[in-house]
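Progress note, project year one: complex with FE2/S2 (inorganic) cluster.
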Amino acid sequence: MTRKLRSQAWFGGHDRDSFIHRSWMKNHGEPADSFDGRPVIGICNTFSELTPCNAHFRELAEKVKRGVLQAGGYPVEFPVMSLGETNLRPTAMLFRNLASMDVEESIRANPIDGVVLLAGCDKTTPALVMGAASCDLPTIVVSGGPMLNGRFQGKTLGSGTDVWRLSEEVRAGTLPLSEFLEAEAANSRSAGHCNTMGTASTMATMVEALGLTLPGNAALPGPDARRATLAQMSGRRIVEMVHEDLTPSKILTREAFENAVKVIGAVGGSTNAVVHLLAIAGRIETPFTLDDWDRLGRDLPCIVDLMPSGRFLMEDFCYAGGVPAVMKELGDRLNTGALTVTGRTVGENVRDAVCWNREVIRTLDNPLTPQGGLAVLRGNLAPQGAVIKPSAATPALTQHRGPALCFESIEDFHARVDDPDLPVTPDTVLVLKNCGPRGYPGMPEVGNMPIPKKLLAQGVRDMVRVSDARMSGTAYGAAVLHVAPEAALGGPLALVRDGDMIELDVAGRRLHLEVSDEELARRKAAWTAPEPAMKGGYQSLYVSHVLQADRGADLDFLVGRRGAAVPRESH
Ligand code: FES
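Model obtained:
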């Protein structure tokens, strides 16, 4: 050890202040040698019973601690704001940036030399990585792992994806309500996060592809003993990383972000990855833009057959070889020289990876869909961009022209969607406004609007939908999302009227509103901004500072790497 640890600024002296720092820590039984210059490892825990996907994190933290102790570190677990996707209203995304502030300030303000991030449910992963990236102390991520496969009436049940499908069947009258309610328990039968390639699995894949986890992190199920082993090994490794001064800025390079885009495309990952990866890049100050998403993923096939794009679930993905097998298959398409938390490169990490099931992880020559990446659309309806996941859309709808039917809010949509007189046909383009970062606020996952009942009765299961919202990573459909600028900012989306023709051309990356510039200017002059949902409090801070989706929907003053210099003394 040659470098002085920052924790020694708290624990290393013989004066009154170091007495205070050590003495109070000793109240939970710490022996004196805990403070002798060994790395202090913060275990940043998003455990909460209100975040069911992370409810097993106390046990996981214990495994990390064991690893830290084995390697000669001093583990200290601390809680941060937890974000449970299923319970938080108006949307967990509203609080991602708030949680990231908690993480950043908790790390910097405390005697911590390195940090293990325990993340699981959707927003917990980006929130933790964003906060840690702004500090840039050695960091390793341990994901909570997906739930085991759901089984119901002899069939596999996938988190989210089958909820949307079953609820549509109830609305269409083809599934009794009693059976729908019975499926609840079968849907979530073990510890862990959503078991589809939804947002949580995409985030776990993303951090593995970025090089922030030990190999194999993403797919191991939550209850699998090997998940606990990985947590323990991560505890050992973070101590070494502190000695090596292996910080996120050395790992989260441009090459790492390129790898993440490609791997997310290859696994058919969630559209939500777009905003989160952009936000992380902003924090670590690595140049990376929305257009990079499109360019890097354009020719990349989706080779993993997982819901919502395919058939299988994360447990199957694990047994097939997980992310390392996908990265091995991508080979030279990745930046194999990118450094990872192992201290080795991506290429070295996956050199011996094996695929055990070619139904789940296919080859590049035999992909699930030829285009796995996310398409970034532009046009007069989305001057700053919009995204669509082609692999989740009905192919025929990726080239479409149809009349708009507008909804001013999701409540307006719910009030009218099942009206038998709704002027809607399969060609209609459903337009949902005021669901962007500012407008909702928080950019909720409402962009995959349910199909109107009268069309469901005709057998329609997909149609073009356009909004400034996000969509659940477990959802599917021809949903154009993240339209920027959003409606609540007076973007062109706010100016669309019923009957306006909208053209979607995914191959041409175009989203066009067939209304003249002059007419749009007239409509803009008559437009007034909606009133904010709440005045004061965090929501006001958020609404005043949130960036648009093309900038990752971070708060403007949080962008950047502020480091972790030791703050001045408190006494
Ligand atoms: Fe937590 Fe899906 S609800 S991961």
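The longest helix spans residues 225-244.
The longest strand covers residues 399-407.
No further modelling is planned for this target in the current period.
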